[in-house]
Design goal:
By secondary structure, the protein is mainly β. The protein is built from 6 helices and 46 strands. The strands form 8 sheets. It has a 22-stranded antiparallel β-barrel.
């Protein structure tokens, strides 16, 4: 039974059950209130009802309202630009509840709410392991175009660059199949981990929030989280709000690539329902670099360049969603279609093509997503809430390597990937019993992959994952919480013979691999003093090898390598230890997070040194790895409108089996930032720093240290209940030539040159 059939059965069953449940009579109340600061109402503040994961934005009088809230105790969290965040507790009874929150002016970055590190949303300083988050405002003001670039200022986060579109986040030196990228907490269903040329099909302009969990997160999210996870929140499924019409508009222009991009999201709300429509697009050309002569490392040929060849990116998307919210909970469905056509940098077409052939390429992607979200408030028994999230993705991916001959330049299609994915998770939240609370759940992921074309990279296959998990918390004492989790995973890969394949191996290959594992986590967090907390967590993690790592046998058109799998590979297992000290000491906030991660049977790709069909061979193998390091940050607020930030992170990664460093590990990095901000204006100057990297693994090359300056100014305008934010930024102010150790193309061309960005955001 394929994913399409499974998705229809599963989604129809859930919709029917939820509709019956929501039709039952029940009572729920309203939580309302006001947010004030500096002697007046605060317009456009974000208000979270944490236990239900719902958020509203304050109106023209600083007012907010949450309807259909079951009786119980909840925490309200409020954050607004130019103010320190605040949190309050409300008890909802038959008469509802109200709250009045007063905010204090502050330029300190907004305290983040993270939805990805525990079953329910909570402030980042309440996590058992290091977490971070960026809101839409922070995200849109950040350097870069891709979502990976825009979170690269967070401690422990780096970017593996390859132009623009294929950029991918690296956490603590790990990426690809060791770091899971999710959308709204669910699998994306792409093939971005197959190759550095493969992009994650998400438009940064449509992102509402990004959560980063550093360190193993296997218990809640399953395999592929040995190094952590990045959860991109796009809110395909709307929520009924307190205003008939609400939404956002975002526009951006960037001179470094000639980028023009825009995104609009509108939610129409009734008494108990919401309808969402969104659309967006991006068009950017080749990325500008400082003019100079750059040498192709493979051929030794020099090229006079002022742009990264074939680094353009064109994309567009459209989405719809509907949700119903009643006394017993909510049910909603959303859909989104995304298309992109982007370039892969390399040697451009040139007159000497016979001896220096072009190595650029082009990739197209189309991804259609249907997402279901349901929340059932179960009543007064041991079961408090039932939550179900599910998505179905239909993903198409085609590659067009550049060819040049006497007739001219062309880009014939080399292959085509078609992947269909069903991912679903059911969570049962227990009502607190004494000091104990928690969640148990079931999880499934079914992937069906077909590969066609003249250069198939691997066999057709079906991968099935099933899991059951429990996540429990215990309030050991005032200011002390303990956490324990356990999960069982079943993973099975089955390849399918494909007689039409152009690769004789895949015409007959029928093989299966089964991997089962038990993973677990333990954590503790303790308040040492007012405003000072410490946490410690240890986790065992697991990852099954992918079909590519096991059975690949073909030319990867986009990267220009010939990939070969190793069928004898077994699963990875990791043991991670994380500690953290967090302080909010008035004018000073700080966080220090050391960590240690051992990975047994770590799977990696390496260049063997030989060629097949004239292309270097990349084969997958396994070794043992040890990674340790730290992340640290401190914010100092000398006056209410000024904050000074310093941050640094470092990772040391060793192949312990062979006694050599692991390749492509980021060097010591730092950030120095000064921000002046009040309720209306903002100005920022920052330096991004990196040490030289000479601790190299197999196939890696050294990079020099660098310091790059970025500056920006912004204004926030309020009219009625509408908020406009305008920002002007200059990235790489001095147009420095510098190279990042993780860049796939660092040996040929440098990082982007100076660029001016103009951002506009409208919240209504």
């Amino acid at each position: 039974m394929g994913p399409t059939v499974l998705s229809r059965i599963g989604l129809c069953g859930v919709v029917a059950a939820a509709a019956l449940a929501l039709a039952a009579p029940a009572r729920a109340q309203t939580v309302s209130g006001t947010v004030r600061g500096a002697g007046g109402p605060v317009v456009g503040a974000s208000v979270w009802l944490l236990e239900l994961g719902r958020t509203e934005r304050t109106g023209s009088r600083g007012d907010f309202r949450f309807a259909d809230v079951p009786a119980g105790t909840y925490r309200l969290f409020v954050a607004a630009t130019g103010f320190a965040s605040a949190i309050d507790t409300v008890r909802v009874s038959a008469d509802g509840a109200s709250a009045a929150l007063d905010l204090v002016e502050s330029a300190v970055p907004l305290r983040a709410i993270v939805v990805s590190a525990a079953p329910t949303a909570r402030p980042s300083d309440e996590g058992y392991q290091p977490v971070a988050s960026e809101s839409r405002v922070e995200f849109d003001n950040a350097v870069g175009t891709s979502f990976a670039e825009k979170i690269s200022d967070l401690p422990g986060v780096s970017v593996r660059g390859n132009g623009s579109a294929p950029d991918r986040p690296i956490l603590r030196g790990l990426g690809d199949n060791e770091v899971l990228v999710l959308e709204n907490g669910l699998r994306i269903g792409d093939i971005a981990t197959y190759d550095p040329a493969h992009a994650t099909p998400i438009d940064a302009m449509g992102v509402a929030q990004v959560d980063v969990v550093r360190g193993p997160a296997t218990v809640l999210y399953g395999p592929n989280t040995i190094g952590g996870l990045v959860n991109v929140i796009t809110n395909f499924v709307p929520a009924a709000g307190d205003r008939p019409v609400a939404g956002t508009v975002a526009l951006e222009g960037n001179s470094v690539s000639g980028e023009l991009s825009g995104y609009s999201n509108t939610v129409l709300s009734g008494a108990h329902s919401a309808f969402r429509v969104s659309a967006g697009g991006l068009r950017s050309g080749d990325i500008r670099i400082p003019s100079g002569t750059y040498t192709d490392p493979a051929s030794g040929a020099p090229f006079a360049l002022d742009r990264i060849p074939q680094s353009f990116d064109h994309s567009g998307e459209f989405g719809l969603g509907y949700a119903y919210q009643g006394a017993l909970g909510s049910i909603g469905i959303g859909g989104n279609h995304f298309e992109t056509n982007y370039g892969i940098p390399g040697v451009p077409p040139n007159p000497d093509w016979m001896t220096v052939p072009p190595t650029t390429s082009r990739i197209t992607q189309q991804r259609s997503t249907a997402e279901l979200r349901g929340l059932l408030n179960a009543g007064d028994g041991w079961l408090r809430r039932v939550k179900l999230d599910a998505s179905y993705n239909d993903y198409n991916h085609s590659e067009f390597p550049t060819a040049e001959d006497s007739t001219g330049v062309s880009d014939p299609q080399a292959n085509h990937f078609h992947k269909r994915t069903l991912n679903a998770e059911l969570q049962l939240e227990q009502r607190p019993t004494g000091r104990l609370s928690g969640t148990v759940g079931l999880w499934t992921d079914v992937e069906d992959l077909t590969i066609e074309g003249d250069q198939p990279l691997g066999p057709n296959s079906t991968t099935v994952g099933l899991a059951a998990f429990a996540y429990e918390e215990y309030q050991a004492a005032p200011g002390t919480r303990l956490q324990g989790g356990i999960r069982f995973d079943y993973n099975r890969i089955q390849t399918h013979p494909y007689p039409q394949s152009t690769d004789s191996v895949f015409q007959t290959l029928s093989a299966s691999r089964l991997s089962n594992a038990v993973t677990a986590s333990l954590g503790a967090i303790r308040q040492l003093a007012p405003g000072l907390t410490a946490s410690l967590s240890v986790a065992r993690s697991f990852r099954a090898p992918t079909v590519q790592e096991l059975f690949a046998n073909g030319l990867d058109a986009a990267s220009g390598t010939y990939s070969i799998g190793t069928a004898s590979l077994g699963p990875e297992t990791g043991t991670g230890l994380d500690a953290s000290l967090r302080g909010d000491l008035g004018a000073v906030t700080l966080e220090v997070s050391p960590y240690l991660n051992y990975i047994s049977h770590f799977i990696y790709g390496f260049l063997r040194g030989d060629t097949i069909q004239g292309f270097p061979v990349r084969q997958f193998a396994a070794t043992d790895a040890r990674l340790y390091g730290f992340e640290a940050s401190v914010d100092v607020q000398p006056v209410s409108t000024v904050v000074l930030r310093a941050a640094a992170d470092y990772v040391n990664a060793q192949d312990t089996k062979n006694g050599v460093p692991m390749p492509f590990i980021p060097p010591l990095k730092g950030l120095l930032r000064a921000t002046w901000q009040d309720r209306r204006y903002e100005a920022t100057v920052e330096w991004r720093l990196a040490a030289r990297q000479t601790r190299l693994g197999v196939g890696d090359t050294p990079t020099a240290g660098y310091a790059v300056m970025n500056v920006g100014v912004g204004v926030r305008l309020v009219r009625g209940g509408v908020v406009s934010q305008i920002g002007l930024h200059c990235d790489n102010v001095f147009d420095r030539v510098y190279r990042d150790n993780l860049s796939v193309i660092k040996d040929f061309v440098p990082q982007p040159g100076r660029g001016f960005r103009l951002d506009y955001q409208l919240f209504y």
